[in-house]
3-dehydroquinate synthase domain-containing protein
Amino acid sequence: MEPISFVFADRATVPGFLGLDVQSEVIGRILEVKPDRILLVCDETVDLLHGQYFAPLLNGGAASAGAGDNFHGENLPPVNKYVLPSGDAAKSWDHLSKLMEWGFDCGATKKSMVVAFGGGALMNVAGLWASIFYRGTKLIYVPTTLLAMHDVTTSLKTSICSQGRKNNIGSYYAPIAILIDVAFCRTLPRPELFSGLGELAKNAALLGGKHAEGFRTALSSDRINAEHGGSGDEFAMDDTMLMQLLALGIDAKMSVLATDAYEKTSGMIFEYGHTVSHAIEKAYGDGVVPHGLGVAYGMLSSSYAAEQLGLMTPEARQEHDELCWLLLKRWPLPHPRPSVETVMALAMKDSKRGITSENEDEISDVLLRSMGDVVPTSTSMLSKFPCRYVAEWLEDIGFPTEGGKVGALWRGECVVVVVVLLLLLLLLLLLWSFLTCFFSFFKLLWLLFLLLLLLLLLLLLLWLLWLLLLLMLLLSFYLILPKKGSTVATNYFWLTIALVIVWEILATV
């Protein structure tokens, strides 16, 4: 395994190791810590695909192929395994609470160690648990997805989701080691591998240079092909390319977080695209849109806003968006899509809201002038801008508006009304023909006169009701008027004027 140093400013320096097919080395590094108990936390998918990876540690079981017999004996610490649901479903108060109870029930002590074995969501919740269990328990990350390997491991953030918001509860906590076996990527389904590539696209846009060039080369290469692999849902990329992309991804984040461990200032740039991304992911529902792909779409919304604000030229935006579409053309958003209003309501609940003191019609995200050129602000790397730019972009790429749906429904209802009126007219003509067969012309005129008289009486009744309503409004206005500057009084006044105008128009017609 190749050593990698994860430096988080003066907060922590975490030893890391990167390799391919390095099961024995991973287990050996874990045992070097000499915990009194190992608390292995994984998710259902990882347990199904890689449940035997730590077999040499579990109940003295036989090692899987390539692990050897180095880890058998009486000196092995006891291992307890807990399986969480896959994806963001694990990031809840309920599962965090159950982890707490399980840890105590296992007999874990302050000398025990948590091994988070899974993707980004699993590492988020297991990391948060380790950070508060006995006020901080030893933690080792063993990531199994491309996204977790280069993006989650390179951050001290841990989190769960609450009240329909994304990552709004969490802490900053450093593991004691990060152990990366790239072999896990061979079993990743296509959306998961794309998710990891989405965050790499973000790094490429933020830093430009070798990161952008490396990403373009990888995504344009013949060595990346959705047709390869064991099943149609798999996405093949050779091991050498994966290692290169991982090295680029880790280098990108560490180059910034080495001076901003808590991602409050310069490190905030890695929130690029996440405001709209989190909203889209939540609007679709957990697990429908992989996180990294949501980020790539969020980047497109931010580039649109930057161009509308005059910060990004059309040429710079085209270069930026082409980088995103290298990935997104392979994975379009599914249909039916949530409404613009739904996405915007969720975006307004983003966990970063308030940092830039947005107004109620503003939203914030990182903005770029061009690839590698971030727009700085006085307090952070976040810029605030009108919400309408995001709404316009969502409409442009095919998200429906609730108003549009209502309009379409209204047009359909109009057609129905016209058809009904035509049928009524036809029925009246038939009725007239029928009556003329039995009544004289003068009798018909008498019937019409009676109908007109009834109509006039109804109009008189409506007029009296109108006068009563008008008097009530004027009385209310009179009662409220003494309160100077009353908004309610002003509203009553203009409502009265509007009703009078409407009535006069109707009376004239």
About this structure: Residues 441-480 form the longest helix (40 residues). The chain has a mean pLDDT of 83.
